[in-house]
Design the sequence.
């Protein structure tokens, strides 16, 4: 009801006119500034935008493909790298990386878009982007406490495709497909498997569950990667969810803007912007992902009024130091993405080579908080194994209580007292 009223109000609200601006020096300034937008030359507008590194890769590995094809997301999906033979054509696989003909297979398949592959260093197996998508032998070492579904999502699933763990929101897993598979994926037990029921008919029980559960005011659409689906499926889902009176907001969790920015087309943006309030949580891993293509994609989404947040998994040897994380968070803010969550890596099977001690995450947050803008500090959380949900982890800033004062320390480790509730009147 509230949503309907808001919509009505938005429809009837008159456009802001110049006279409504507060009195200021604006008219004088206007006289001196030409506000006419500078049009982009038509030729420049139509030119596919490919950064030099990706262009080199295209010319070297897809000599017959055109730049226009490279910029098509369907072409990117069709030409993705899906096996070790193909990867061997573009990389020198190291001793620790799995090679073809070794007869070893992991339950998480390989899939990397040509665009994302173009960001990989072919010679350096330690390069962060390479480590996050190329399978290594460490994945076959199962350590204590690791599970295929450590978050127990399957236990909290009242109907297929829905995880209902928190009181007012649900996770709606709409596909098991991603354009690029991350080797540390929390949902490696379900992505690329036939566990996830996909398609308009298969979603029906989940949609009915949401319709029949008035406490659900927030739906997070995830997977897999929902933005790998055709426009029509995305529009169908958003339309159905938006019509439910108690669903106040919709969120989409995706890595597409980072690994397949070509997918963020004008028609897709036109669909997304019809269903506000719609939030996008984008999975970013390392500053090397922040290419000109990604910047442009995020700017287009932000210009459509879609609030963008980031989610990052803390990964050993990939992004586990303050400088890298600061660079990533600053870079995200520059492209209008607000850092949202920093996740402790979940203990999926074969993840010990990716997992850092929790003290590392605390050290990173301590290295950000106070040292840079609060907008650049994500919430560091552990998704509690066994289905406990996200638990925030913070450095110790609260040191205890002394009579009527609480004791605090700041980012420089200086100590302060704050007068707690004023129970004793001052004399
Ligand atoms: S994009 Fe997300 S769901 Fe897909 S493989 Fe990576 S972490 Fe898993």
Sequence:
């Amino acid at each position: 009801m509230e949503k309907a009223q808001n919509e009505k109000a938005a429809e009837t609200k008159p456009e802001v006119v110049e006279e409504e601006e507060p009195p200021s020096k604006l008219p004088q300034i206007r006289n001196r500034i030409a506000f006419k937008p500078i049009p982009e030359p038509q030729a420049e507008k139509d030119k596919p935008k490919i950064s030099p590194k990706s262009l080199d890769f295209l010319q070297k590995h897809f000599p017959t493909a055109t730049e226009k094809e490279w910029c098509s997301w369907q072409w990117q999906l069709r030409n993705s790298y899906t096996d070790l033979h193909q990867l061997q054509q573009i990389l020198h696989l190291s001793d620790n990386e799995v090679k073809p003909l070794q007869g070893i297979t992991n339950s998480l398949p390989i899939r990397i878009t040509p665009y994302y592959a173009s960001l990989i260093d072919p010679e350096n197996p330690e390069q962060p982007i390479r480590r996050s998508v190329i399978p290594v032998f460490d994945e076959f070492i199962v350590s204590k406490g690791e599970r295929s579904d450590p978050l127990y999502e399957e236990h909290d699933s009242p109907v297929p495709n829905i995880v209902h763990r928190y009181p007012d929101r649900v996770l709606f897993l709409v596909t098991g497909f991603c354009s690029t598979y991350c080797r540390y994926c929390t949902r490696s037990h379900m992505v690329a498997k036939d566990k996830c029921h996909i398609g308009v008919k298969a979603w029906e029980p989940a949609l009915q569950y949401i319709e029949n559960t008035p406490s659900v005011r927030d739906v997070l659409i995830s997977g897999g990667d929902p933005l790998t689906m055709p426009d029509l499926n995305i529009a169908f889902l958003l339309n159905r969810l938006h019509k439910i009176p108690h669903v106040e907001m919709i969120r989409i969790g995706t890595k597409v803007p980072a690994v397949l920015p070509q997918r963020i087309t004008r028609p897709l943006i036109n669909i997304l912007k019809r269903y506000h309030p719609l939030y996008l949580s984008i999975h970013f891993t390392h500053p090397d992902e922040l290419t000109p293509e990604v910047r442009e994609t995020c700017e287009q989404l932000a210009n459509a009024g879609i609030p963008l947040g980031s989610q990052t998994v803390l990964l050993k040897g990939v992004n586990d130091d303050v400088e890298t994380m600061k660079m990533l968070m600053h870079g995200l803010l520059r492209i209008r993405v607000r850092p949202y969550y920093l996740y402790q890596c979940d203990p999926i099977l074969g993840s010990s080579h990716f997992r850092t001690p929790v003290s590392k995450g605390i050290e990173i947050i301590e290295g950000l908080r106070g040292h840079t803008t609060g907008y650049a500090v994500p919430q560091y959380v552990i998704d509690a194994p066994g289905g406990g949900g996200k638990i925030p982890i913070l450095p110790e800033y609260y040191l205890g209580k002394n009579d009527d004062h609480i004791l605090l320390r700041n980012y420089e480790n200086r100590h302060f007292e704050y007068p707690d509730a004023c129970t004793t009147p001052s004399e």
